[in-house]
Structures are given as C-alpha cells and as structure tokens.
Specification:
Blueprint lengths: L1 H24 L10 E5 L5 E7 L4 E15 L6 E13 L3 H11 L7 E10 L6 E13 L2 E14 L2 E10 L20 E12 L1
Antiparallel strand pairs: 1-3, 1-9, 2-3, 2-9, 3-4, 4-5, 5-6, 6-7, 7-8, 8-9
Length: about 200
C-alpha cells in the first residue's frame, strides 16, 4: 500500500520536475541584433493621467499625434520623437478642462507635448517582453526636461506594444497648480503611457 501511494505521489511530482527542467532548458528569445525603426500607431497609443486631490482623484487622457523611434540595440542609441496633442487633453469635466488648457498647460500657446529619446539601457528581445530604461528629453509648456523611466516592450513578429509609467512634476516645471481655497491638488501628475505599432529593420 505504501509503495502504491508513493508511486501515486511521485508520479505527478516527477512530471512537474521534468516539465520545469524542460522549461528551464528552453533558450531565451535572442536579443534584437539590428537597428530598428519603431512606428507608433496613433489609434493604438495614448496617455492616461491622474492627479490626486483632497476631494477626489482627477483622471484624464491625451491623444498621440505621431511617433517614430530609431533604436540601435548594439549601442543603446535612440532618436526620433513621440508627439502628443496637448489640446486633446480631457478629464470629463468641461469647466475643469478649460482651466487646465488655459491656466495650466496653456495648450493654445504650446499645442504639443513631445518626448525625444536618446538612449536606452537593457536587452531588447526579438520576441516576448523586455524592460528598458529609456533616457531622453520631455518637452512641455515651452521647456525641455531630462527624464529617465522604465519601458516594457513586447514583440510579436513585426508588431510591438509598449507601456510606461512616470511622473510629471508640472508645478516644478513652471506650470500653475490649479488649487484654490476649497480644492487642493498635488504638484505632480502620474502618467500611464501605452503604445503599439510596427517595427522594420
């Protein structure tokens, strides 16, 4: 009886051990070895923002206008730009949106928000997910600011998706905090960026 029970227990365990060993033996996806042109699809890309306040958290969106990035995995060098339409920002409240566009980001005067990458650290896998630390200049409200943040990129053939999360300290960057006597909001906006597109050598 003991031998039978032992066989019943060891059978599934053996299968799991073998399966784990086979999975570990599978080679990782090779890194990309050639320079890439990453085209962003405006229809599948955009940014969500959140701003914490004493009453509630404000959520909003911005649309992507265009984007294309050249990236050399061998050196980490990057170039190109990711351009958002500053005038497209919406939070679901017309009065609040008017104040944001007129008094905070001044979108009529500065109609674009642009990120220009210049370098990325990390290995970009030819398939599956990779995480790169991307450095570049973030232009908003008429000024450029140096930023670095992690970006998760997933490849499937020539198609790719990316997502990133970072903060914009808008008040420190020269924009007006819209707080008043009754409503107080943070000096920092949280940004969730998502993108999709195609890649060509």
């Amino acid at each position: 009886m003991t031998k039978t029970l032992g066989s019943m227990v060891l059978g599934p365990i053996s299968v799991l051990v073998v399966a784990a060993a086979l999975a570990a033996a599978q080679p990782a996806a090779p890194p990309v070895a050639h320079e890439l042109l990453l085209q962003l699809d405006p229809g599948g890309s955009g940014a969500e923002i959140s701003l914490t306040g004493n009453v509630h958290t404000v959520h909003g969106t911005f649309r992507l206008k265009r984007g294309a990035i050249h990236f050399d995995p061998a050196t980490g060098r990057a170039s190109g730009d990711v351009v958002f339409d500053a005038t497209s920002g919406k939070t679901g409240n017309g009065s609040r949106d008017n104040k944001m566009h007129k008094d905070v980001i001044e979108s009529r005067r500065y109609p674009e928000i642009v990120f220009r990458p210049d370098h990325a650290d990390g290995k970009l896998a030819a398939s599956g997910a990779s995480t790169l630390r991307v450095h570049g200049m973030f232009a908003i409200h008429g000024a450029e600011h140096e930023v670095t943040f992690p970006v998760e990129v997933t490849f499937a053939g020539n198609a790719w998706t990316a997502k990133a999360s970072f903060q914009v300290p808008y008040a420190r960057w020269g924009m007006k905090n819209p707080s008043n006597f009754f409503l107080r909001v943070d000096d920092v906006v949280q940004v969730q960026f998502h993108a999709s597109g195609s890649a060509t050598p």
